[in-house]
């Protein structure tokens, strides 16, 4: 390990499992002091123990619901109190309550919940991190977007929220510079419980659909997150890094029929 985060602190939101967990572990393994947050206290405590065991670092679990304003504020305040300051914010929480509902059947109430977690909470966490130290000491924010922001994956609500998140990323990068950098990472589907709920195709077929020959892992996405959070990316802000196994580079296809609504495409 390079030790890119020695004498640095980080709060990772949505770190109980998946990409958020992998990012928190990577930062801790490279010397960072890390606080993690998530809704389920048991899963969060287990994640903290596993990260500590892998890195030798002390990891602070702070249970909190990202949709609730008072819990977001409490989480950031407790993180700053525990860590001393806040240098890095990784927002990896995500919701797909609307699932693969067709556009004509989208429920506005569920859509609002998806936007609340995927966009609004990311904005509010960044504002809190800025207020509680980044405004004076600088920092780096990395948001977890998705390839779904750029291509039709038949998850219309999820795609809308991730497109909005990337627009928010650029706006915050503009207005918080030069003290705070804001970037995002856009992975294709990776091997997590989140993507497992929307994938019906056999594993070998999913792997074969990627130019790189396999579906991604949380660790491969976390590598991009930690790069953007580190000083190695000190002249990068307002951008989105694709971590998609070449999926976005694939040619437009004319040799397969247009899938009908309800046909498995993942």
Summarize this, please?
By secondary structure, the chain is α/β, with parallel strands linked by helices. The chain is built from eight helices and seven strands; from the N terminus they run E-H-E-H-E-H-E-H-E-H-E-H-H-H-E.
Global geometry: globular
| CATH-derived architecture | 3-Layer(aba) Sandwich
Portion in helices:
40-55%
- Indicate the structural class: alpha/beta
According to CATH, the homologous superfamily is NAD(P)-binding Rossmann-like Domain
Strand order of the largest sheet: 3-2-1-4-5-6-7
Q: What is the strand tally?
A: 7
Percent of sequence in beta strands: 5-15%
The CATH class designation is: Alpha Beta
Distance between the termini: 35 Å
Query: Might you state the CATH topology name?
Result: Rossmann fold
Count every helix, treating DSSP H or I runs of 4 or more residues as helices.
8
Count of distinct structural domains: 1
Mean pLDDT: 94
| H/E element sequence | EHEHEHEHEHEHHHE
* Poorly predicted spans: none
Main beta sheet: 7 strands, parallel
Radius of gyration equals 18 Å
Keywords: Oxidoreductase
InterPro entries: NAD(P)-bd_dom_sf (IPR036291), Sc_DH/Rdtase_CS (IPR020904), SDR_fam (IPR002347)
Protein name: NAD(P)-dependent dehydrogenase (Short-subunit alcohol dehydrogenase family)
Family: Belongs to the short-chain dehydrogenases/reductases (SDR) family.
């Amino acid at each position: 390990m390079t030790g890119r985060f020695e004498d640095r602190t980080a709060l990772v939101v949505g770190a109980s499992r998946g990409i958020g967990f992998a990012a928190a572990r990577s930062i801790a393994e490279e010397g960072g002091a890390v606080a993690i947050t998530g809704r389920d206290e048991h899963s969060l405590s287990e994640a903290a123990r596993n990260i500590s065991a892998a890195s030798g670092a002390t990891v602070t679990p702070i249970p909190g619901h990202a949709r609730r304003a008072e819990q977001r504020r409490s989480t950031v305040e407790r993180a700053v109190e525990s860590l001393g300051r806040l240098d890095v914010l990784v927002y990896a929480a995500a919701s797909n309550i609307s699932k693969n509902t067709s556009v004509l059947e989208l429920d506005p109430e569920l859509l609002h919940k998806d936007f609340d977690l995927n966009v609004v909470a990311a904005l509010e966490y960044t504002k809190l991190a800025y207020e509680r130290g980044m405004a004076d000491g600088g920092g780096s924010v990395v948001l977890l977007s998705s390839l779904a922001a750029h291509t039709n994956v038949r998850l219309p609500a999820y795609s809308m929220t991730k497109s909005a998140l990337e627009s928010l990323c650029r706006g915050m990068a503009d207005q918080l510079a030069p003290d705070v950098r804001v970037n995002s990472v856009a992975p294709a589907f990776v091997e997590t419980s989140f993507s497992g709920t929307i994938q019906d195709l056999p594993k070998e077929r999913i792997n074969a659909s990627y130019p790189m020959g396999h579906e991604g892992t949380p660790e491969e996405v976390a590598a991009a997150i930690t790069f953007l959070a580190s000083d190695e990316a000190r002249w990068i802000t307002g951008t989105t890094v694709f971590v998609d196994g070449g999926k976005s580079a694939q040619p437009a296809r004319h040799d397969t029929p247009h899938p009908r609504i309800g046909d498995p495409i993942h």
